[in-house]
From TrEMBL:
Signal peptide span: none
Pfam families referenced in this protein's UniProt entry, alphabetically: Methyltransf_25
InterPro entries: Methyltransf_25, SAM-dependent_MTases_sf
Protein name, as recorded: Methyltransferase type 11
Organism: Candidatus Moduliflexus flocculans
Domain Methyltransferase: 37-136
Cited CDD domains: AdoMet_MTases
PANTHER family: METHYLTRANSFERASE (PTHR43591), SLR0407 PROTEIN (PTHR43591:SF78)
UniProt entry keywords in alphabetical sequence: Methyltransferase, Transferase
GO annotation terms (biological process): methylation
The keyword Methyltransferase is annotated on this UniProt entry: yes
Length: 257
């Protein structure tokens, strides 16, 4: 089984690079002072803490995650940023949220659906709808790993590895492109989307170095010769300032009927 989750450090580092993308998700939630909002699969609090500013001193931000380490880091971050009184993190499964129906003015999930099995997508989205009040905004932001592209001399090997990443390393690697359809089918109103290219220039800090190679070799999807060629070539590209990788991040928002 491929390693599905990323660690705290990776999420903290990517948060800085994805600031503009993340800010757009908060804007699309139409958060107002006094609102109570939810972040599903909140990780180390890199979104719950910034949203404290949007809800103001009279609102509240809730974050849920099933990983105790994420919750611990999220709580520490909220304390450090002095927003603990209005930002709370809870250990919970997004498939069975511990909240009443219509409890939230707006709800978001970023890069959550790509780590859930595809079969969990509809039930978890149904939970998202259940806890959001009528007229509230629902925002899903996820990666479309099908759009990943790396400048590499052997395009067949590059395509093979990218496809392997989207279909085997990520439990639901194409989640990002699915939510325009899912939200429309579920009857959300005013559905809108925005696409952000996430460009990476550091091979060694990208998911396409150790992580991808470890999984591909374990699954015997590529040979050791191919893995060495990939690693050597892209390490040299990074050293020369020539590493280029990009993948689309998709934000879809809609209003609960
Ligand atoms: C790729 S991380 C994204 C974290 C955060 N949303 C961000 O953008 O930085 C996915 C998160 O979803 C959490 N997660 C995975 N399955 C979950 C579940 N069933 N219930 C709650 N959280 C879950 C993981 O623990 C992890 O923190």
């Amino acid at each position: 089984m491929a390693e599905a989750y990323v660690d705290v450090k990776y999420l903290q580092e990517t948060a800085a690079a994805l600031k503009q993308f993340k800010t757009r998700t908060y804007e699309l939630m139409r958060i107002q002072p006094g609102h109570v909002v939810l972040d599903m699969g909140c990780g180390p609090g890199v979104d719950t803490v910034p949203m404290a500013e949007y809800v103001g001193t009279t609102g509240r931000v809730l974050g849920v995650d099933s990983d105790q380490e994420m919750i611990k880091n999220a709580d520490e971050y909220a304390r450090k940023m002095q927003v603990s009184e209005r930002v709370e993190h809870r250990l919970a499964d997004v498939a069975a949220l511990p909240f009443e129906s219509g409890a939230f003015d707006a709800c978001r999930a970023e890069r959550l659906f790509q780590v859930l099995p595809a079969s969990a997508c509809q039930p978890v989205f149904a939970e998202m709808l259940r806890v959001t009040k009528s007229g509230g905004w629902i925002v899903v932001a996820d990666t479309d790993w099908a759009t990943a592209s790396i400048d590499f001399p052997d395009a067949a090997l590059e395509r093979k590895l990218i496809r392997f990443f989207g279909e085997h390393v990520r439990p639901n690697g194409y989640a990002g492109r699915q939510f325009l359809h899912i939200m429309t089918q579920r009857g959300l109103q005013d559905v809108e989307f925005q696409v952000f290219p996430n460009v990476q220039r550091q091979f060694t800090q990208s998911p396409f170095d150790e992580w991808l190679l470890r999984e591909a070799l374990t699954a015997q999807a590529i040979s050791h010769t191919d893995a060495d060629f990939w690693k050597t070539t892209l390490t040299e590209r990074e050293a020369a300032g020539e590493f280029y990788a990009t993948v689309n991040m998709v934000i879809v928002g809609g209003r609960q009927a």
